[in-house]
């Protein structure tokens, strides 16, 4: 029988999520894998040593950070090709999420080396889960641009985004970023999560202006995740639904079911309402052949 975590001919690259603060936030499987592999590649060996020591993991370490990722990844690929199992960990959280790891993973895939996720903590998901903002659909933008002009241009490009937006931000730039958000996106709901899972964990929720007032007299420290509510969808009329249906019907090869799903997503209305308007339109909107839609 095939065993998922056993070596075949080449080694396996394990992408292992590690705690973002609280050292207890690690899965039993992650601990086992880190003990069993022959080598752990780490973004910062000094930080990883502390984590490994806390869990009595004595596997050899090697570094793999941004500046050497291209060159060092080739070395690790050679070890994997020789049959060595390797785990990759970033400083905290899930590798590759605004952290190194992408180059190594791409090279492993190109060399037909098996890449196995060992899931766990991600600051993005942790912050989103307690934000109180819609979580069914969101967009993660990594770190916001550090230069004010670039940051403002980026925020302008997100002005019509309806999904919850999640970003990492430097504590030193947070206040100026919040002022930009208020000016460009309006006084929307935001959530500031700081030092998640650590001793001084803090989560602030409110309108941008309210959060600015809460923070203006203090000094923000620690790792910050910023969440911004998406733009509220405007209420659409029945006529707009019918017009959009006709547009999609004439310009796409979608079935009726696909068109109804598309309109419901775009306009933030229920499929039942879209279907009802399509039926009402009757002969004005002849229906293409496709799967029937139940009410």
Q: Would you give an account of this structure?
A:
This protein has 295 residues and is α/β, with parallel strands linked by helices. The protein folds into three domains: 109 residues, 3-Layer(aba) Sandwich (Cobalt-precorrin-4 Transmethylase, domain 1); 105 residues, 2-Layer Sandwich (Methyltransferase, Cobalt-precorrin-4 Transmethylase, Domain 2), CATH 3.30.950.10; 47 residues. It contains eleven helices and ten strands. Strands 3-2-4-1-5 form a five-stranded parallel beta sheet, with helices on both faces. Strands 6-7-10-8-9 form a five-stranded mixed beta sheet. Helix 6 links the parallel strand 6 and strand 7. The N terminus and C terminus are likely disordered.
- Helix content range: 25-40%
Low-confidence runs of at least 5 consecutive residues: 1-7, 285-295
Mean pLDDT: 89
The CATH fourth-level homologous superfamily of the largest domain: Tetrapyrrole methylase, N-terminal domain
Instruction: Tell me the overall shape.
Output: globular
Report the structural category: alpha/beta
CATH class of the largest domain: Alpha Beta
Q: Which radius of gyration do the C-alpha atoms yield?
A: 24 Å
The major pleated sheet works out as:
5 strands, parallel
How many domains, in number, for the residues? 3
Order of helices and strands: EHEHEHEHEHEHEHEEHEHHH
Q: Give me the side-by-side strand order of the main sheet.
A: 3-2-4-1-5
The share of residues in extended strands comes to 15-25%
Secondary structure tally: strands: 10
CATH topology of the largest domain: Cobalt-precorrin-4 Transmethylase, domain 1
Q: Compute the separation of the termini in Å.
A: 46 Å
């Amino acid at each position: 029988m095939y065993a998922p975590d056993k070596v075949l001919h080449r080694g396996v690259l394990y992408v292992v999520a590690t705690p973002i603060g609280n050292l207890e936030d690690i899965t039993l499987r992650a601990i086992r894998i880190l003990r069993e592999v022959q080598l752990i590649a780490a973004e910062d060996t000094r930080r990883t040593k502390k984590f490994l020591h806390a869990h009595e993991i004595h596997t050899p370490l090697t570094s793999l950070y941004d500046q050497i990722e291209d060159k060092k990844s080739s070395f690790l690929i050679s070890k994997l090709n020789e049959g060595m199992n390797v785990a990759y960990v970033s400083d905290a959280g899930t590798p590759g999420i605004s952290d190194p790891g992408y180059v190594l993973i791409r090279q492993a895939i190109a060399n037909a080396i098996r890449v196995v996720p060992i899931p766990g903590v991600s600051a993005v998901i942790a912050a989103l889960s307690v934000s109180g903002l819609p979580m069914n659909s969101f967009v993660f933008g990594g770190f916001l641009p550090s230069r004010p002009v670039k940051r403002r241009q980026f925020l302008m490009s997100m002005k019509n985004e309806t999904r919850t937006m999640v970003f990492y931000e430097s504590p030193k730039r947070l206040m100026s970023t919040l002022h930009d958000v208020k000016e460009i996106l309006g006084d929307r709901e935001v959530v500031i999560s700081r030092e998640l899972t650590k001793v001084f964990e803090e989560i602030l929720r409110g309108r941008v202006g309210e959060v600015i007032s809460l923070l203006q007299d203090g000094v923000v420290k620690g790792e910050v995740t910023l969440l911004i509510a998406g733009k509220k969808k405007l209420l659409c009329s029945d006529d707009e639904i019918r017009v959009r249906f006709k547009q999609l019907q004439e310009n796409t090869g979608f079935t009726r079911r696909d068109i109804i799903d598309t309109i419901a997503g775009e306009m933030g209305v229920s499929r039942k309402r879209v279907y009802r308007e399509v039926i009402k339109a009757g002969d004005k909107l002849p229906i293409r052949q496709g799967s029937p839609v139940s009410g």
